[in-house]
Amino acid sequence: MSSLQNVFNISSSAMSAQSQRLNTVASNLANVDSATSSSGQPYKSKQVIFEATPVGTSGHQGVKVNKVIEDQTPARMVHDPANPLADKDGMVAMPNVNATQEMVNMISTSRSYQNNVETMNAAKTMLQRTLTIGQN
Amino acid sequence: MDKLDALFDFNATALRVRAQRQEILAANIANADTPNYKARDIDFAASLKKALEANVASAANNSAVSSNGNMSLTTTHGQHIPGGNGLSEADLLYRPLIQGSVDGNSVDGEVERTAFVDNAIHYEANITMLNAQIKDMTTALNSGN
């Protein structure tokens, strides 16, 4: 396979990894106030771990999501005695989602995704030009 | 290598090396957020020189292993086209670090984007040159008609 066609594989692996990262950001932001979940525990912030992985025939590195981890930082304690989940001191354990960090993550993801789309477009233009060799 | 092959050899090889470099740069951009990924690149001039020398060598002796030690297709006949991509792991260099990052990633987005666009323009220039050569040859072949 030609090198330029492999650019598509590399960029698309990065795009799918980045969209998976955007998924976790969405999930984290959506659950910023979920004090309980199916396990009875407050929601734990999720983060993806990227890993470089060879794609295509040339062995150049694309990206894949190695694993999704749960952030182990302690829960945010909020004073809310009216909440049925409150302990004897009136404190409720809220998710450890850091909204600021998630917003930054979101912007970074979107920029990286955009970069890869541009990369793919450039490779497409180059391939199209290649097909016109000798046509004039 | 016949004369027509020799004429197009330079630009064709340059295009191939450019395309390979484009792939390496795409991999760098793709891995901009991967922890511990180190940005790679090739020395274009050196790689092109090596690829051209390998072309001449394989045309001369049709050997299975070309002069730079890369594996290529065995050519058992003078008319066979040698394969192999011509780039080995040793050609892939690491980009010098300008500013380190906490996750050990050495990709600098701006540097990679610039190199990527620069490489794309050179690729297009190469195609233009190749087209001009083809035009020259066509004109020469049609002269007298």
Short description:
The complex is a heterodimer of chains A (136) and B (145). Helices cover 45% and strands 20% of the residues of chain A.
Secondary structure layout:
The complex is a heterodimer of chains A (136) and B (145).
Chain A: H1 3-30, E1 46-54, E2 61-70, E3 76-79, E4 91-94, H2 99-131
Antiparallel strand pairs in A: 1-2, 3-4
Helix pairs in contact in A: 1-2
Chain B: H1 3-30, E1 40-42, H2 44-61, E2 92-94, H3 109-142
Antiparallel strand pairs in B: 1-2
Helix pairs in contact in B: 1-2, 1-3
Largest sheet geometry of chain A: 2 strands, antiparallel
What Rg of chain B do the Cα atoms give? Answer: 19 Å
- Helices and strands of chain A, in N-to-C order? HEEEEH
* Beta-strand percent range of chain A: 15-25%
Q: What structural class is derived from the secondary structure elements of chain B?
A: mainly alpha
Within the largest sheet of chain B, what's the order of strands? 1-2
**Helical region count of chain A?**
2
Question: Ends of chain A: how far apart?
Answer: 26 Å
Q: For the residues shown, what is the average pLDDT of chain B?
A: 83
Mean pLDDT of chain A: 91
Protein described:
The complex is a heterodimer of chains A (136) and B (145). With 136 residues, chain A is an alpha+beta fold. In chain A, helix 1 (3-30) packs antiparallel against helix 2 (99-131). In chain A, the strands form two sheets. Chain A has a two-stranded antiparallel sheet. Chain A has helices at residues 3-30, 99-131; strands at 46-54, 61-70, 76-79, 91-94. The two termini of chain A are 26 Å apart. The longest helix of chain A has 33 residues, at 99-131. The model of chain A has no long low-confidence stretch (mean pLDDT 91). In chain A, 29% of the residues are buried. Chain A is 45% helix and 20% strand. Chain B has 145 residues and is mainly alpha-helical. Helix content of chain B is 55%, strand content 4%. Chain B is built from three helices and two strands. In chain B, strands 1-2 form a two-stranded antiparallel sheet. Chain B starts with a helix and ends with a helix. Classes of the chains: A alpha+beta (136), B mainly alpha (145). The A-B interface holds A 2-4, 6-7, 10-11, 13-14, 18, 21, 49-52, 58, 60-63, 108, 112, 115-116, 119, 122-123, 125-126, 129-130, 132-134, 136 and B 15-16, 19-20, 22-24, 26-27, 29-35, 37, 85, 109, 113, 116-117, 120, 123-124, 127, 130-131, 134-135.
